[in-house]
Amino acid sequence: MKCNKYRLLFALLILSLGMPGARAQEPAAAVRYRGETPAQHDARMQWWREAKFGMFITWGVYAQLAGNYKGTELPGGAEWIMRNLQIPKAEYEAIAKQFNPVKYNPDEWVRLAKEAGMKYIVITSKHHDGFALFDSNASDWNVVKATPCGKDLLKPLAEACRKHGIRLGFYYSQSKDWYHPGGMDYMGARDPKASFDAYFNKIAIPQVKELLAGYGDVSILWFDIGMPGQEALAERMVTAVRDAGSSALINSRLLVGGKHTPGLRGEALDVLRKVGIDYLCYGPGSAVRLGDWKYIFYHDPGCKVREELFNIREDIGETKNLTGLNPEKLKELRKVLRDHLVKVDGQMPSDKNTGKRIEIPQD
Fold it and tell me: Domain spanning 13-343: which CATH class is it, in words?
């Protein structure tokens, strides 16, 4: 059966953050946020360095369209359909009124992840379409108030993660927001009073605070796209996270886009350290991407692992209701990934041009 990448409503992101004994990809431990010592930072990072294998769930209103809008199939990621096919806000809101995942079973998802050997789950709490999978006081554009579902989808997932001992993280699109005025690449009518600062302070920071306050221990905050030149806003977000008492790991995409990360050196790393970034988040070279995200490796372009991973991807399963996935195939995927990383001296992602491992300077 040929896999339809658009009907897969989630993607697995298998992060290889180093084989045993390797350091994770992170800025050198110099001056940590709020006086955190290198030893304290090492302790907070330790679980992440050891986990290596997890599930990344990409899910939202865009899933309802399965990559097709009025007969036009979207080239690329289905989560970009609002922007790439220029769907007006009013029409996208109407699509949300059809979003009602009645077969949602987060306990099954978490159990599946655990059986496959995964240690954490990250889910898109809000993607670039601005739609939140949780109840939010900062915006009515969320699953509780804008869909027939009427239920917070993250709370039962958080409960299932606690039950099964799986760490939980939230992806949050803090920069791109096509729905809320002021968000990067906003698609609505121009509002001269709207600014990115106002959006960031009224939508992004309050919603991240809601995620930290209402869902138990959050292990990862996975920001995206970056905000070049917005160090003050990035530091404001980190301050909000730490003021909330959270020890969640924060990735570099809060400030810097993934494709720009491999070249960071010297002063650029100093900026990330000052802001309070915990680790560097690369592009797809640090992950195997399945389903809607596709799978890509920077290592060994001709390596047999591509064929192996593709075959496994087709057998894992595809479903509009996120059911019927094959845990044995997920375990097989883990083995292929592990074996491949050993073959390519895979302590860190390789540079796609030189094939050399990307080294992060350490103090």
Answer: alpha beta
Q: Closest Cα to residue 79, out of 145, 155, 178, 188? A: 178
- Say if residues 280 and 261 touch (Cβ distance below 8 Å): yes
In the chain, domain spans: 13-343
- Whose tokens are 């399965």? That residue is 66
- Which pTM was predicted? 0.80
> CA–CA separation, 321 vs 329, rounded Å?
19
Q: What are 122-143's pLDDT values in tens digits?
A: 999 999 999 999 999 999 999 9
Tell how far CA 180 is from the center of its chain.
Answer: 20
pLDDT digits (tens, 9 = 90+) for 182-206: 999 999 887 888 899 999 999 999 9
What DSSP state is assigned to residue 122?
E
H/E stretch holding 1 reads none
Neighbours of 106 (CB within 10 A): 21
In sequence order, the 6+-apart residues with CB closer than 8 A to the CB of 282 are 25, 258, 261, 262, 349, 358
Spatial distance between the Cα atoms of 57 and 289, rounded to a whole number of angstroms: 11
Token pair of 284 as six digits: 């797809």
Instruction: Give the torsion sign (CA, 2, 327, 215, 249).
Output: negative
What's the token pair of residue 267?
């002063």
Contacts of 273 (CB under 8 A, 6+ apart): 27, 28, 30, 31, 32
